[in-house]
Design goal:
This protein is an alpha+beta fold and 236 residues long. It has helices at 2-18, 24-27, 36-40, 44-72, 75-96, 104-128, 223-232, and strands at residues 132-135, 139-143, 149-151, 155-161, 167-176, 179-186, 191-196, 203-208, 213-217. It has a 6-stranded mixed beta sheet with strand order 4-8-9-7-6-5. A 3-stranded antiparallel beta sheet has the order 1-2-3, with helices on one face. This is DUF3784 domain-containing protein.
């Protein structure tokens, strides 16, 4: 998480220095599409100064706040911060920079960012909700996004494991800090399903008859307790 914060912070600061008065006609969105008469109406020098100050502040504040959230709250909240803070910052930047540079494209960009922000918030609210493990008489049900119903007749084995496979990349799903839900490719080329509401060990590993694997970790309940409850169901 620290490397992500550092990398993005440096990127924001670098953006502030990349755009100058000399190359604005090529790099500055909105301005580069204006005709000569429209460009004369833009206070470019003042705008570039504001542009640079904003990105330097964004870079430093992004890193400092991100580190404080990581150490004093948790990485899951940091993931939300990483996704939301830059969007909010850029909406503010566009809104406050219209007195220097009032481009219709920039206004459209602000509206678009607002829509993206709402979409991201909805996704986080949906996927941060814990996916519960529910025991039925003949199946195990994972309730929530990326959940499924697994009949006992399709299960080869259920066990507790203290380590999950080394993950190379997410193929389909949601990841935020210790929360991982969806399908992930391992270093051995295997695709496994993770439903990890938190980094609570040991994990419950369900291996289906077809070889597909599901790793589960509850947020509130004990995984060991859930495992003991699961073992009693087939015996009924």
């Amino acid at each position: 998480m620290m490397y992500t914060l550092i990398g993005m912070s440096l990127l924001f600061i670098a953006i502030g220095f990349i755009v100058t008065e000399n190359n604005a006609k090529y790099l500055l969105a909105g301005y580069n599409n204006m005709n000569d008469e429209e460009k004369k109406k833009v206070d470019l020098k003042t705008y570039i100064t504001y542009f640079r100050k904003f990105h330097v502040f964004l870079g430093f504040s992004f890193f400092v706040i991100g580190m404080l959230v990581t150490y004093f709250i948790d990485e899951n909240v940091t993931s939300i911060f990483i996704a939301v803070y830059p969007i909010v910052a850029y909406i503010y930047f566009i809104a406050t920079s219209t007195k220097y540079f009032n481009a219709k494209k920039n206004k459209f960009g602000a509206y678009l960012l607002a829509v993206v922000l709402i979409f991201i918030v909805v996704i986080f609210i949906r996927d941060y909700k814990e996916t519960k493990l529910i025991l039925n008489s003949n199946s195990i049900e994972f309730q929530g996004n990326y959940g499924e119903i697994v009949p006992f007749s399709t299960i080869k084995s259920i066990q507790l494991v203290h380590e999950k496979p080394k993950i190379i990349r997410r193929t389909k799903g949601f990841s935020a800090g210790t929360i991982k839900k969806g399908y992930y490719k391992t270093d051995k080329g295997e695709v496994v399903k993770l439903i990890l509401n938190a980094e609570n060990k040991p994990y419950i590993l369900i291996t289906k008859s077809d070889g597909k694997k599901i790793y589960y970790a509850a947020k509130e309940e004990s995984n060991e307790k859930l495992f003991e409850q699961i073992k009693t169901i087939p015996a009924k």
